[in-house]
Amino acid sequence: MIQKILVIEDDAALRTSIVQTLDLEGLEAIPMSSFSQARRSIRSNFKGVILSDIKMPDQDGFDVLRFAQARDPELPVVLLTGYSDVPTAMRAIKEGAYDYLEKPCDPDRLVDTLRRALDRRELVLQNRTLREQLGNQQYDDQDGSLAERLERHERQIIQEVLSSENGKVSKAAERLGIPRNTLYDRMTKLRLVAKSFRPGNDAEN
Q: What is the pLDDT of residues 89-113, one digit of tens each?
């Protein structure tokens, strides 16, 4: 499971605090003080996500976001914004940020947001790896079409997430980074039933 967080924050004290919070949760923080220092680490195959402050002396968080999107449109970027800075937060989402967090940031929300972003990143990278493997190998007719093999892989991922969340579709959707209704649609197509993953068939919250 990928656990890397590229932390871009020019405030040394806040950067240290974030790194300590992530370390306590078993996440691997890669601290950087500026975008120019971090840009070498932002690649299309980066096995992690980005957490960046918006307001920095030179290039800001939106520069980070644009650079990351140019390298990989599916690389999650979480932006840190000032308290109640609603216009900036709305701009962040509009321009493609995975999410935004207000400073000072609640540690639980920070970790939860980053774990969801990591889950989405892992799913993206797994699908890419599968497509590469399928593109480089020849299969007999009995293995099915490319669409069928991709569907089997999707089914396996959804089953694993549902199992880890005890069949709670809302929680599974959060981990996968997709809307709940979208997950229900995929489960219907794949003939997956949420209650079969629930211990004792507990009702979903």
A: 888 889 999 999 988 889 999 999 9
